Amino acid sequence: MPGSGNCLCGSIAFEYTGEPALTALCHCTACQQWGGSAFSSNVAVLTTNFAITKGTPKTWARTGDLSGKKHHLFFCGDCGTSIFSQPEGMPGVTQIKSGNMKNSNIPIMAEIFVTRRRDFVTAVAGSKQAPEMP
Ligand SMILES: [Zn+2]
Ligand SMILES: [Zn+2]
Hints:
Layout: E1 3-6, E2 13-16, E3 22-26, H1 29-35, E4 40-46, E5 50-54, E6 58-63, E7 70-75, E8 82-87, E9 93-97, E10 110-112, E11 128-129
Parallel strand pairs: 3-10, 10-11
Antiparallel strand pairs: 1-2, 2-5, 3-4, 4-9, 6-7, 7-8, 8-9
Bound molecules: zinc ion (ZN) (2 copies).
């Protein structure tokens, strides 16, 4: 199902077409820090299916602990919302932070970096569990 969304202040908006390639919770410490939360909720789509429809996000690249590859993070320069990311380890994939989507209540296919999951968070029933990156 296609989707769309925007940052908290509305300066940046996006949309995607087609079906997500993956929906996943990530428990890695970088996601915990970037989102200021216990985990991130991601909808991965093909970048060719993804478009920014309003504004220009700021970007910053983090180098992965395990992969050594850059992970480009995109966020709103006005309100600071984490909007999406593009990992060089997964060329052609855009990971949308699903909390920004108009319909974010979509099933979670997988959880990754579950070895770093916080003690108070339980696994999503029926989702694939990966200790690190699958
Ligand atoms: Zn904003
Ligand atoms: Zn992560």
